[in-house]
């Protein structure tokens, strides 16, 4: 009996404890969660949304709060037990994508996040996203006073007003994306009108400078207005004008893009699509084939075609020969990447037919020799190989090196209306080696070019060889611990040798007419910098060595040195200084020229909206020649004070601008004892203006 009592008491205590623990666990409330009765689709802004809570807070658990975006929307939910419904008659859901967050707010004031639910709400017009940004900029500047040799009788006051209206926007709905923009320029001075050069006094004072519309869904797009089109350097490349263009995917491996474009850049309200004149437009298309759709960019083929015509556009006071041009062509392209991106190849080839069609208005009844159509070819290729990539050199630096080979050639008389910058009858080859070691960068290159590819005996053949090298060496970053007192060193060298290849037959040339010239250009610079200062020194030397017979003495040499610095004297005052010395020698004339320059820049910001700036420049020049001496001195000074103002109404709208007062002064004095000439002039002006922006 004694043993039973001794064992029974601890056992009873244990049973009671277990019972209390079980009861406590059973009474611990479960976490409060929330689930949404709306789908992931976009919701109208006035549609009620229903939130279902797992339970309500018990006594002592505080209260619940709902935050949508940055707004506390707890009070606009109608509560019926665990069902909470948003009441759109009390408030409108904020447009766009946001999150509805359920918080539990304790009696002590602490907030605990319980659930987070995404909400996507359409704008009042039914768009998923709507952004429209209008802006009006006005400028007016006028002469207040002038003196010295400034133009007498000039009208004073703020008379001419110019401005622009800029509109940019984007609308998104059901996967469709519409981007639009327009820019209108206006002026009260007709001579500054956008089309004054072509229409004179008939040019409108307010004119359309540019506009663009782009409607896209996925990879499909339609573009109208001002656009830039083309990626084939020999056929049509970055052609900027008005037109209509489309881009259509054709599965994973094919993509087509094409359009019709005006033959030249257009402005104004007339001809909005650029297609109203059939003899002044281009039609082009491009088909791209992705050979390995699973590896985009690994191997891509492209086919481009072009057909169009172009005629010159005269100015309002110009007479031109209306000589229309036509061209049509086909281009092929290959782009490849391999070896984990270390090997990159680009190849382009094109064949273009160019012709000047017969024009009776141009012939004026005369018997002219017809211009024959010419079909010529152009090609280009580049190969880049990363010889070294991200190779560790020590604990801090990485080594990299890339070799690039380029080749370009266009046949004589090659012409394409869509490739305006291409040079015909020319071959150019170049090899470039770029290397990096941490912050150190080195580049060396060699190129060769020649023209007259058909070796026509009566045409001068020119050969050009060029060698170049550049080095950037941040000495401060090389030590294990950065040494800010060490400078950034930069050096560059360039040598170009241009020479004629023989004397053209029946040209009347002799050996002295055939160019043979070597030009060297060398640069060396050092720059030190700190948090509130910068100091630099630069030296440049260039030589021109003429080697053709009879002109060996016509050589030139130029030397330039400059010291410049910038110092922030305090948070409100910045000071800049530049000292320069330039000297040149001509062996042909025996002249020695020297010019010294001093420049000072001061910027002072006494208050948040006020700013003052001043710039002074002094030049002292001297020419020493066998027959005498010439000297000149010049001074230029400018000072400007500005006051900026801005008043915002919400995040995106408001008014802002700037008032300015600008003083300019110039003085020049020269004495040329070789010709007994003296010149002395000076002038000053005081101008004021205002820039105003409504956004």
Quick take:
With 695 residues, the chain is mainly beta.
Key terms:
695 residues; 26-stranded antiparallel barrel; four-stranded antiparallel β-sheet; 34 strands; globular
Question: Overview of this structure, please?
Answer:
The protein is mainly beta and 695 residues long. Helix content is 5%, strand content 60%. It contains three helices and 34 strands. It has a 26-stranded antiparallel beta barrel. The chain has a four-stranded antiparallel beta sheet with strand order 1-2-6-5, with no helix packed on it. The longest helix has 26 residues, at 2-27. The protein is globular. The termini are far apart. The model is unreliable at 1-26 (pLDDT under 50).
Globular, elongated, flat, extended or rod-shaped: what is the shape?
globular
C-alpha Rg (nearest Å): 37 Å
Mean pLDDT over all positions:
88
Head-to-tail CA distance between termini: 97 Å
Number of helical regions: 3
- Major sheet size, sense and barrel closure: 26 strands, antiparallel, barrel
Number of strands: 34
Strand composition percent: over 45%
Q: State the low-pLDDT regions, or none.
A: 1-26
- By helix and strand content, what is the structural category? mainly beta
Helix fraction bin: under 10%
Tell me the layout of helices and strands.
Elements: H1 2-27, E1 34-36, E2 50-53, E3 63-68, E4 71-72, E5 77-80, E6 83-86, E7 96-105, E8 111-121, E9 129-148, E10 161-173, E11 176-187, H2 196-199, E12 206-217, E13 220-232, E14 236-250, E15 254-262, E16 281-290, E17 299-310, E18 325-338, E19 343-355, H3 360-363, E20 374-393, E21 397-410, E22 426-437, E23 440-451, E24 462-474, E25 488-500, E26 516-529, E27 533-546, E28 556-570, E29 573-586, E30 592-604, E31 610-625, E32 628-649, E33 653-672, E34 677-694
Antiparallel strand pairs: 1-2, 2-6, 3-4, 3-7, 5-6, 7-8, 9-10, 9-34, 10-11, 11-12, 12-13, 13-14, 14-15, 15-16, 16-17, 17-18, 18-19, 19-20, 20-21, 21-22, 22-23, 23-24, 24-25, 25-26, 26-27, 27-28, 28-29, 29-30, 30-31, 31-32, 32-33, 33-34
């Amino acid at each position: 009996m004694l043993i039973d009592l001794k064992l029974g008491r601890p056992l009873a205590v244990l049973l009671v404890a277990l019972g209390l623990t079980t009861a406590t666990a059973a009474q611990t409330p479960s976490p409060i969660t929330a689930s949404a009765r709306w789908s992931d689709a976009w919701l109208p802004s006035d549609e009620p949304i229903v939130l279902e809570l797992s339970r309500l807070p018990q006594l002592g658990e505080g209260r619940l709060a709902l935050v949508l975006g940055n707004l506390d929307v707890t009070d606009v939910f109608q509560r019926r037990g665990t069902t909470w419904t948003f009441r759109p008659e009390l408030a409108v859901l904020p447009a766009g994508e946001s999150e509805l967050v359920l918080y539990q707010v304790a009696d002590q004031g602490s907030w605990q996040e319980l659930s987070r639910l995404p909400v996507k709400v359409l704008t009042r017009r039914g768009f998923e996203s709507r952004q429209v940004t209008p802006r009006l900029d006005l400028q007016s500047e006028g002469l207040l006073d002038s003196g010295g040799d400034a133009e007498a009788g000039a009208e004073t006051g703020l008379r001419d007003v110019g401005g622009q209206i800029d509109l940019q926007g984007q609308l998104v709905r059901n996967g469709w994306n519409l981007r639009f923009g327009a820019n209108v320029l206006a002026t009260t001075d007709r001579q500054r009108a956008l089309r004054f050069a072509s229409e004179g006094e008939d040019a409108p004072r307010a004119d359309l400078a540019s506009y663009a519309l782009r409607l896209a869904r996925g990879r499909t797009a339609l573009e109208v207005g001002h656009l830039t089109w083309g990626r084939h350097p020999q056929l049509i490349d970055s052609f900027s004008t008005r037109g209509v263009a489309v881009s259509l995917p054709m599965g994973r491996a094919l993509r087509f893009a094409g359009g019709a474009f005006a033959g030249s850049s257009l402005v104004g309200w007339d001809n909005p699509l650029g297609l109203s004149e059939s003899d002044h437009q281009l039609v082009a298309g491009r088909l791209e084939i992705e050979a390995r759709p699973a590896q985009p960019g690994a191997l891509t083929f492209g086919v481009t075609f072009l057909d169009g015509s172009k005629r010159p556009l005269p100015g309002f006071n110009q007479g031109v020969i209306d000589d229309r041009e036509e061209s049509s062509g086909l281009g092929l392209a290959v782009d490849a990447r391999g070896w984990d991106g270390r090997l990159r190849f680009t190849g382009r080839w094109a064949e273009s037919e160019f012709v000047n069609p017969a024009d009776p208005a141009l012939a004026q009844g005369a018997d002219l020799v017809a211009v024959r159509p010419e079909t010529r070819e152009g090609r280009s290729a580049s190969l880049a190989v990363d010889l070294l990539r991200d190779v560790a050199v020590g604990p801090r630096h990485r080594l990299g090196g890339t070799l690039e080979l380029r080749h370009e050639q266009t046949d004589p008389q090659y012409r394409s209306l869509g490739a305006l910058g291409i040079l015909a009858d020319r071959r150019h080859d170049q090899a470039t080696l770029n290397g990096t070691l941490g912050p150190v960068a080195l580049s060396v290159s060699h190129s060769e070019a020649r023209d007259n590819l058909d070796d026509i005996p009566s045409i001068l053949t020119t050969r050009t060889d060029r060698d170049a090298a550049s080095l950037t060496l941040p000495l401060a970053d090389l030590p294990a611990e950065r040494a800010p007192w060490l400078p950034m060193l930069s050096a560059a060298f360039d040598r170009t040798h241009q020479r004629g290849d023989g004397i053209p037959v029946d040209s009347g040339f002799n050996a002295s007419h055939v160019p043979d010239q070597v030009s060297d250009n060398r640069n060396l610079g050092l720059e030190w910098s700190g948090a509130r200062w910068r100091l630099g020194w630069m030296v440049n030397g260039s030589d021109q060595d003429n080697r053709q017979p009879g002109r060996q003495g016509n050589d030139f040499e130029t030397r330039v040195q400059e010291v410049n610095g910038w110092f922030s004297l305090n948070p409100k005052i910045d000071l800049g200084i530049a000292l320069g010395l330039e000297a040149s020698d001509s062996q042909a004339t025996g002249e020695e020229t020297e010019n010294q320059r001093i420049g000072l820049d001061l910027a002072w910001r006494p208050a948040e909206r006020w700013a003052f700036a001043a710039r002074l420049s002094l030049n002292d020049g001297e020419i020493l020649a066998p027959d005498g001496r010439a000297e000149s001195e010049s001074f230029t000074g400018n000072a400007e004070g500005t006051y900026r103002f801005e008043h915002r109404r919400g995040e995106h709208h408001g008014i802002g601008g700037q008032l300015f007062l600008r003083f300019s002064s110039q003085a020049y004095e020269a004495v040329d004892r070789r010709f007994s000439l003296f010149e002395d002039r000076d002038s000053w002006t005081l101008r004021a203006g205002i820039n105003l922006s409504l956004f």
